[in-house]
Write a structure and sequence with these properties.
The chain has 3 domains: 188 residues, 2-Layer Sandwich (Nucleotidyltransferase, domain 5), CATH 3.30.420; 90 residues, HRDC domain (DNA polymerase, domain 1); 78 residues, DNA polymerase, domain 1. Helix content is 53%, strand content 8%. The chain has a 6-stranded mixed beta sheet, with helices on both faces.
């Protein structure tokens, strides 16, 4: 593919979409990207969908076509591979806006990592490495909801998919030579499965940084408040932090009971507006918790790794680094810090257990089995001491 390319075809009406859709159904792979805005909303607002089959680039305007059926059919077509780069936010946006995920899926960022090109490598990086083209970075903070889109925006949007298929084919060749195709296939299935899995609002409290420091009563308060906030955010389509920030929910959960409005104001946790709008709700949550028998309070969250077990974490990390070097991979591709913390925590608190991501598939063969054996040795040393 040449670095020069024809101007993209803008699709803003049903007739143009139908014509393009006929072409899409006849190919076996297509590059895909999205532009979206979520600065002031809970849900991302889909602003543009870019596609390229290697010859033609299309820019579909979802503001003019809120239900682009031909595009939805393409996303669902099992015979057309959809190639994206760093696709997590694209998947969320497409799922919410169009009700359809791109399946089958190929994420070039994931594939690049499995080919040894680095962890979380950017689009510019893979294009330079595999296609030999240096891209300018521009328009990343554009207002993609403005109409008409500027010439610069249109050029950038087209560029984002123009090189994806050459990158895809180069990565396929490397994956085949390294016999790692199934690694990417398994990861793509996992990405799609995770995107289809809706996290219940009542479980959001687990994501709040520092929640593990709370006792069961504090966790019950945090769970109730974060569940309520999740409902408000979704119903009003507002960012969570515009209602009450995570750190403020955590601070509130540490407050003692009984709690009065005067006491809540005195903490200065909330700004006056939030105090006025949500103070009564916070007091009601405390009242409910104070009258509960506590049987349904959440269980304690896993604590931080004891300081004296820091050497275990370092030892496990060294094992992962060594295996990664053998495979010419970034260590994070094999196991993330949170995975190793899970393992060491299981050693520290009595029962060796691998995190789910390391219990099967290629990761178990590459590093999981070795980590499990090493963790057993570490626990034996702790027991003997």
């Amino acid at each position: 593919m040449s670095s020069e390319y024809s101007p993209p075809i803008m699709i803003t009406d049903s007739a143009a979409l139908e014509k393009a859709a006929q072409r899409w159904q006849e190919i076996d792979v297509i590059a895909l990207d999205t532009e979206f805005i979520r600065t002031d909303t809970f849900y991302p607002i889909l602003a543009l969908i870019q596609l390229c089959d290697g010859e033609t680039t299309w820019l579909v305007d979802p503001l003019a076509l809120p239900e682009p059926q031909g595009l939805i059919d393409l996303l669902a077509n099992p015979n057309v591979v959809k190639v994206l780069h760093s696709c997590s936010e694209d998947l969320e946006t497409l799922s919410h806006s169009l009700g359809q995920l791109p399946d089958p899926l190929f994420d070039t960022q994931t594939a690049a990592a499995y080919c040894g090109l680095g962890f979380s490598v950017g689009y510019r990086g893979v294009v330079k490495e595999l296609v030999g083209v240096e891209l300018d970075k521009h328009e990343t903070r554009s207002d993609w909801l403005q109409r008409p889109l500027s010439a610069s925006q249109l050029s950038y949007a087209a560029e984002d998919v123009h090189y994806l298929l050459p990158v895809y084919r180069a990565l396929l060749e490397q994956l085949e030579s390294q016999e790692r195709q199934t690694w990417v296939e398994d990861e793509m299935l996992a990405k799609l499965a995770n995107s289809r899995r809706d996290v219940p609002p009542e479980n959001y409290y687990i994501r709040v940084k520092g929640a593990w420091k709370l006792d069961r009563r504090g966790l019950a308060i945090l769970q109730a408040l974060s569940t309520w906030r999740e409902g408000v955010a979704r119903e009003d389509n507002r960012p969570r932090g515009r209602i009450i920030a995570d750190k403020d929910l955590l601070s509130i959960a540490f407050l003692k009971s009984p709690l009065s409005m005067a006491q809540l104001k005195g903490t200065n946790i909330l700004n006056p507006r939030a105090q006025r709008l949500y103070g009564d709700k916070i007091l009601a949550v405390f009242a409910d918790i104070d009258t509960s028998d506590g049987k349904d309070f959440p269980q304690l969250l896993p604590k931080a790794i004891p300081r004296e077990h820091g050497s275990m974490l370092k030892s496990c990390r060294q094992l992962v680094v060594a295996r990664a070097e053998e495979l010419s991979l970034a260590p994070e591709v094999l196991a993330r810090k949170v995975d190793l913390e899970f393992l060491v925590r299981s050693i520290a608190y009595g029962e060796v257990q691998l995190p789910e991501v390391l219990t099967s598939g290629w990761r178990f063969d590459a590093v999981g089995a070795a980590l499990l054996s090493h963790a057993g040795e570490l626990q034996s040393a702790v027991t003997s001491d």
